[in-house]
């Protein structure tokens, strides 16, 4: 196993809340020196065939990917799936159900924003959604930046889209058990995404990893665009404690918004098993170049 492999196993396209197409992402990943790539759109595998074809065309090794929204102890947790069969019907149907409430939620978010004087947010957000089935808070954030309500998307989330703020609507997503089973039953490996982002107590976080592991989850993101260097050290310890493989991904969404560029991440800390070591037979290999 090459310890220095530049794997980027977390990013988003226009199929969810990114701004680039799967083809543009594949080219960009190649240009930025990525060796192994996965597109992980939220609750949707509709971009996988395009991403696989584009990866092959530019000469990138590829793993199928998805990022599933899960409700766990009153918070939203994201579970990344890697290396599954994207045509698996139970997975596709589970994701469709998970997406199902997004339109209604978006109307409620717009109603909340209207109450504080921000009009037309549903229609505004929709113009940013490449996939009408997947309207997300990110699309509202882009609308509020474009209309000058806030200077950037981080300010929008802080003032309008997080718990207790006018545009925040609690939502019930998939259960942890559903997400892990859909991924596993489709032949893939489940990964806890950006664990430092959650606001769990130590006991709650222990419960998350214990239940995840008990359900057959096998990985945790250690190096991600969402983690500081210190947080990566913390979750390297968690990976060892729970005997989980380690993943690495930028969580890239948009050239203007994302803090981390595709492939531009520190290496995984030593002595961890990279998730790709467990997925060797699931990697779509780029054809050898003459
Ligand atoms: P949703 O799935 O509709 O709840 O939207 C979640 C998405 O919003 C995440 O995947 C991120 O892309 C983005 N997001 C969530 N929280 C923040 C934040 N505090 N700042 C910036 N973007 C955020
Ligand atoms: Mn996102
Ligand atoms: Mn996420
Ligand atoms: Mn993500």
Automatic annotation (TrEMBL):
One of its GO terms (molecular function) is 5'-3' RNA exonuclease activity. It comes from the Bacteria. Residues 7-72 form the Polymerase/histidinol phosphatase N-terminal domain. SUPFAM superfamilies: PHP domain-like. Gene3D superfamilies: 1.10.150.650, Metal-dependent hydrolases. Transmembrane segments: none annotated. CDD domains: PHP_HisPPase_AMP. InterPro entries: 35NBP, PHP_dom, PHP_domain, Pol/His_phosphatase_N, Pol/histidinol_Pase-like. NCBIfam families: nside_bi_sphtase. This is Phosphatase. It comes from Rhodoferax ferrireducens.
């Amino acid at each position: 196993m090459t310890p220095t492999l530049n794997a980027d196993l977390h990013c988003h396209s226009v199929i969810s809340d990114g701004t680039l197409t799967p083809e543009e992402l594949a080219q960009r990943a190649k240009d930025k020196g990525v060796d192994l790539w996965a597109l992980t759109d939220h609750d949707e595998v509709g971009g996988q065939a395009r991403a696989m074809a584009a990866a092959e065309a530019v000469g990138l090794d590829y793993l199928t990917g998805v990022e599933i929204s899960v409700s766990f102890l009153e918070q939203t947790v994201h579970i990344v799936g890697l290396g599954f069969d994207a045509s698996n019907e139970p997975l596709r149907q589970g994701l469709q159900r998970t997406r199902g409430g997004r339109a209604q939620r978006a109307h409620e978010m717009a109603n909340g924003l209207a109450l504080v004087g921000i009009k037309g947010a549903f229609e505004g957000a929709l113009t940013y959604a490449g996939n009408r089935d997947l309207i997300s808070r990110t699309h509202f954030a882009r609308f509020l930046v474009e209309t000058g309500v806030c200077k950037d998307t981080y300010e929008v989330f802080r003032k309008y889209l997080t718990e207790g703020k006018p545009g925040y609507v609690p939502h019930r997503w998939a259960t942890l058990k559903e997400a892990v089973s859909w991924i596993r039953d489709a032949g893939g490996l489940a990964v806890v995404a950006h664990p430092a982002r959650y606001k769990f107590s130590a006991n709650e976080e222990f419960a998350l990893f214990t239940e995840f592991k008990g359900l057959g989850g096998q990985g945790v993101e250690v190096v991600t665009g969402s983690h500081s260097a210190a947080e990566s050290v913390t979750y390297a310890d968690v990976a060892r404690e729970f005997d989980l493989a380690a993943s690495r991904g930028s969580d890239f969404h948009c050239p203007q918004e994302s803090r981390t560029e595709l492939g531009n991440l520190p290496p995984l800390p030593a002595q961890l098993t990279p998730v790709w070591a467990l997925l060797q037979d699931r990697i779509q290999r780029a054809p050898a170049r003459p």
